[in-house]
TrEMBL record:
Official protein name in the record: PKD domain-containing protein
Start and end residues of each PKD domain: 66-123
PROSITE patterns with a match to the protein in the record: PKD, PROKAR_LIPOPROTEIN
Keyword Signal: yes
One Gene Ontology term of the molecular function aspect: Wnt-protein binding
A GO cellular-component term linked to this record: plasma membrane
Pfam families: DUF5050, PKD_4
UniProt-listed GO biological process terms: canonical Wnt signaling pathway
Taxonomy, superkingdom: Bacteria
InterPro entries: 6-blade_b-propeller_TolB-like, Cueball_EGF_LRP_Nidogen, Ig-like_fold, LRP1-like_beta_prop, PKD/Chitinase_dom, PKD_dom, PKD_dom_sf
Signal peptide: 1-24
Amino acid sequence: MKTFSNLFLRFLVTLLPLSFIVLTSCTEDEEPPALASVVAKFDYELSNEGIAPSTVTFTNKSIAATSYVWDFGVDSETSTDENPEFTYEEFGTFDVTLIARADDERADTTTQTIVIKDPLGGKKPTLYYTDRATGQVHMIILDDEATTPVIQTFGENHTKPYGIVADLDNENLYVIDQADELLYQYNALVNGEKSVLLNVADLGDKEHMMYYPAGVKVIEGRLYWGADGGIYTSALDGTDLKAFVEFSTNTGALEGSLPLGISYDAENQVIYFANDAYDFSGGIYKVNLDGTGLEEIISGVDAGDISYLDGKLYYFDYATSKGTIYDIASESTTEFVDYPSRFVWGTIADPITERVYWTDRGSNDDGTDGKIMSANLDGTDIKVVLDIEDAPVVGDAKTLRPYALALGLY
């Protein structure tokens, strides 16, 4: 018995180290826990309803990553921010790629396609002009690729069409006639049916609101125009006719004035206008959209029209015989071109083509030598947009005697 016990004890002594070795070996052979996989992932939001220019805000939702490289799909524009923003100035389709990387260089890549919409909706910018020689309205498609201007002609019997504006939201066109004291509406942007919206003969005690009218504009969903003694406004259908601001000695300014060209700074809600210098004191004025703050900002100017864009006013000053750019902040002027031979009734700056346009009605009233001109917004690169060679044929002859201008899309 004693011998058996000794043998069993020796067996256990021999077995225990082996068991320890086996157990230790099993523990040392186990694999370390797996690292989390790197996953590249992101969401994004578009400003301006995705219409160019649109700022895209990227939200990084990657997993197990510590560094990032973004490629926005535009001229090698990249970022290493975790949650970057990027502004797409132009419309188009862009592949955005995110590379997410861990500290040990493990990485993952993901790509999403972002669509930035065309602000013009596939349409071309256009320039409307009224013509005293033809009594009609003409629309030029501003297409740099066209070898000759594409022109649509419509309307008739406009005697002194000193104002025109396109309401793109409702696809109506408005023309104001100073001689006949009428405001017309066309119910389409091209070849629309013409109707009389306001007639001085029908206005009763408000007839003064259509004395020698000029410079019609659509501002914040209403029509505004200048007339003898003030600026007047109505709903787009001609109803709710009322004075916006009337000038008298009671206001301390502009008694008996005639605002001609009108332009609007939407950001600051300020209306600018040129006062008639033929019968009155001239000058360029501003007034807030609520009717307050009327003041002259440039004295002595003799302009038929003005156009506001990006802190600057564009106008042709008969007094100085120059086309002029006025910087509102610095109160400085830049003269960029000599004045045409006759009074300029149309001037407009276009943010789409980034050019300013003006009319040169020529020296002949029959419309045989008129022009429409343009320049960069800084006054450089002056070009002929339309001359008599490419003018529309009226009757048997090409005719161009342009007056008022308006911008549109077609």
